[in-house]
């Protein structure tokens, strides 16, 4: 075998929920020079590919293959023979109706090293997320996994219908189109007409949809629901447990499509919270955080820190960019050793704590006015205060602290600019009425999001809930013609999420 060949990893990406990929599977994505992925592999996995990796989509959507299986096999061989590490990312498990065995055979024939990384199969995961345990000691001790793709016109079927009809639980993969034939075959083999049946579409994702019935009614129920692929079909008495065991679809935001406009680096926290509550999130960063470089004011502030009595941080971004600049100057947290600190909000204080520094002043409310109120208990007459924050921030803090006798040096350490990378995505979602809610975490996110609305047509927001992190953001939304429906009582991400959930309950 040539030492110049790369290794191919056949990786099961799991059934759709990105969290269900294995640790080893994630590692294979991270180290791949070439990543070849399927329609059913969660797109979020691609974010873990290393910089410069070649990412190739090969489709494999029912009836619409971007590349044939023979083409995929040839592609894997071609890329591996260049010496590249190739990760073949497949939905579910590669060796359970995933044609991974065929790909492995080709790699073996070509003398290419390969490994298979099993994945969580949708046959197990989709029913579990629908509240259906495939085995249960009160109902069954047998389980059959069957392809639902088999052509009903085939002269000789590979499926032993007599045998599987006697199985306690039967799971059919991708069998929506053949559902009438499946029902007919099972009924002909003696499966009782009142046997419970359920179909789970897009199992484990926020688009999950479940339709239940019996062997005699399920075809009509699916027709009425207009259920399509990809779906798993479950036949057996265990389906009856769904009435009491369904949990995934009971979450308060299940099925809601929410646009998260927060900056890209910060969006994941809010997105993960909303997804855990059942929402389908569209990350569409409206702003991008950029440090202010080559600023004489920043340099002067950093080299004269000992001249200040206080430093006031008004945001997480302010903390991060300030310390980035501090470290770039060859300094560290010891440079703030003699200063007292104040923060707007617990998130800002928590970020400051990461650098080993606590906060001396933390106001009860998390807006600029509250910082001013908190300083009324401090002796700041004649004090020198450093205020590192965003460019073009509200003037409340420096103006009011100056009135109280302090000398305030307001230094811009970052600016928010418009992130246009999601404009097309937002426009399409709004036009297609695919948005239930938009979350705003700052005035900048509101301003930039509004500019993404196609032709400025605010009527596209008529049935969209507008959720704001606080009164300042709310006021900006009103000024720009939006109608805020939800405003957090506590002006933090947690407060915003709590308000959204409270309205949904």
TrEMBL record:
Which pathway does it take part in?
Porphyrin-containing compound metabolism; siroheme biosynthesis; precorrin-2 from uroporphyrinogen III: step 1/1; Cofactor biosynthesis; adenosylcobalamin biosynthesis; precorrin-2 from uroporphyrinogen III: step 1/1
GO: which molecular function terms? uroporphyrin-III C-methyltransferase activity; uroporphyrinogen-III synthase activity
Q: Name one GO biological process term.
A: siroheme biosynthetic process
Boundaries of every Tetrapyrrole biosynthesis uroporphyrinogen III synthase domain copy? 271-497
Q: Could you read off the lineage of the organism from its UniProt record?
A: Bacteria, Pseudomonadati, Thermodesulfobacteriota, Desulfobacteria, Desulfobacterales
Key word Methyltransferase present in the record?
yes
Per UniProt, the keywords (alphabetical) are: Cobalamin biosynthesis, Methyltransferase, Porphyrin biosynthesis, S-adenosyl-L-methionine, Transferase
Q: List, for all copies, the residue spans of the domain called Tetrapyrrole methylase.
A: 7-218
Q: Which domain of life is it from?
A: Bacteria
Among the Pfam families in the record, one is: TP_methylase
* SUPFAM superfamilies, sorted: HemD-like, Tetrapyrrole methylase
> What are the EC numbers?
2.1.1.107
Q: Which family does it belong to?
A: Belongs to the precorrin methyltransferase family.
Query: What name does UniProt use for this protein?
Result: uroporphyrinogen-III C-methyltransferase
